[in-house]
Amino acid sequence: MPRKVNHVSAEDHRIVTDAVAAAERHTDGEIVTIIAARSSDYDDVALVWASVGAFLAMSLVALFPDFYRGLYDALRGGWGHEPTTNEWLGTIIAFGVVKWIGIWLILLWRPLRLALTPRSIKAARARARAIDLFKVGTEAKTAGRTGVVLYVSLAEHRADIVADEAIASKVAPAIWGDAMAALIERIRAGQPGEGMAEAVRQVGAVLATHFPKSDGNPNELCDRLIEI
Questions:
Q1: Distance separating alpha carbons of residues 197 and 180, to the nearest angstrom
Q2: H or E stretch including 159?
Q3: Average pLDDT over residues 181-197
Q4: pLDDT for 95-131, tens place per residue?
């Protein structure tokens, strides 16, 4: 049985769902709200850091061979013979492999892996995840191509808005800036539900201007806050 996801409280759910329903009363636009724990596991970042660490470790051995040969000899109790070129090369490679495994094991701890991920990569992953979710659940799912996804990724501290074709043709991405600012400000203050609700209200106002409510327009997409 899948584990239930709870990033926000039941009250936050109510606040956001009510905000979506209220906003859609004035527009043919459909607002989908999604909150995620993270946008990626960043396993590839751990692999890169492990590889960089192993390379640097082996480079140090190459730069200071006398020191490491002395250390090698000391570890053998001073009774070892002078290693041949092949033996020394094998030792260096083994040292690099051990270093790689050690770093990779440390980076299995996700908070550290996330902390070592550049901000630009986290922003790109959050954007890509928002687009993927939009394509799966919102794109072309409304008669007028008026769906919009409001996406929040908690681990990356990122938020994004992805709009369907009809909206994107009339609303420049910069227009969503105020909604994003309000959302991020309240999430930082520990009010994710209020932040998303305020962003929904501002998105709804923009949609109402360009796509006012028409007679008989159904509610085509879910109003409730989605947690993943």
A1: 11
A2: strand 158-163
A3: 90
A4: 889 999 999 999 999 999 999 999 999 999 999 999 9
The Cα 136–Cα 140 span in angstroms is 10
With a CB cutoff of 8 Å and minimum separation 6, the contacts of 81 are: none
Contact 204, 26 (CB under 8 A): yes
**DSSP track, 2-60:** PPPP-SS-HHHHHHHHHHHHHHHTTBS-EEEEEEES-S---HHHHHHHHHHHHHHHHHH
Asked if residue 193 lies in contact with residue 8, where contact means CB atoms within 8 angstroms, the answer is: yes
Residue 212 scores a pLDDT above 60: yes
Question: Span 10-40+119-227: which CATH code?
Answer: 3.10.310.50
Say whether 219 sits in a helix, a strand or coil: coil
Residue whose C-alpha is closest to residue 75's, from 96, 54, 63, 91: 91
Q: Boundaries of CATH 3.10.310.50 in the chain?
A: 10-40+119-227
Q: At what angle do helices 10-24 and 192-210 cross, to 10 degrees?
A: 10
Residue 212 DSSP code: B
Token pair belonging to 138: 């919102």
